[in-house]
Sequence to fold (251 residues):
Amino acid sequence: MAESMAMSPWMALAWLWLLMTVISLVSGVVMALVCWGVGASLSEVRFHLGPPLLTVRLRGVKWSFGFLNTGASVTFEPLGIRRDGTDDNSFLRLALPLRLIALASTVAGMLLLAVACLSPERGLAAFTSGFEQVVNVFLARERVVSFFALLRTEGFVPALGVLSAKLAALNLLPLPPLTGYMLLRELWLAVWRPQIRSNSVPAWGMTLVLLLFLGWGYGLYEGLANPNSKEPGLSTMLQEAKRLIGTAADP
Fold:
């Protein structure tokens, strides 16, 4: 086991930002490659939220980079107006299976990164254990502290794999505007075929996602306040990290 390193709150936040940046870059590139592979042309690939800090144009696509690297997204090439008056784009012209593949590509990118960092068995274990963990905000502080214990002792790559697996699980939750909801929405539209395709996000979904993020935001704040916590002892903390994260922290 690697020797534990001291970590200030600002250093812990910097490491977390770097981890999120790598995950956003990998998932965004995988998403773009998959979309091109299924025949959907893109106008923009974003690796951030908020205003961009740097944009480059490559292969006719604008690649946008920013400071808040908390997720990647793509904008499909517009193709005019549909008969019902809504906007048309390259995604909507794909067959349903190809649309589902394109939507799931960001989760696939995160899961591939987790498997590459942890091994297939450990990556999938960290992923499957993530569904309960990301929704149980009452244990957010405990799990943030456990994650920083893992980062301090096991290093960057295992922590990257664990975080990527948990974010993949988070994105598959059936809550708008997460990927899980978008997949179910495409299936619902394919079955019921409404006359007008609405792209609006339900307010109830945004409220639930906001409450989820607020819970984890508070847990992150509490965890960052003391990222070197050894109570009730580092060995016990690592055992808790293994229990919470799955088998990802095993040697």
The two ends are 7 Å apart (CA to CA). The beta strands are 42-46, 49-58, 61-68, 73-76, 78-81, 87-89. The longest helix spans residues 9-37.
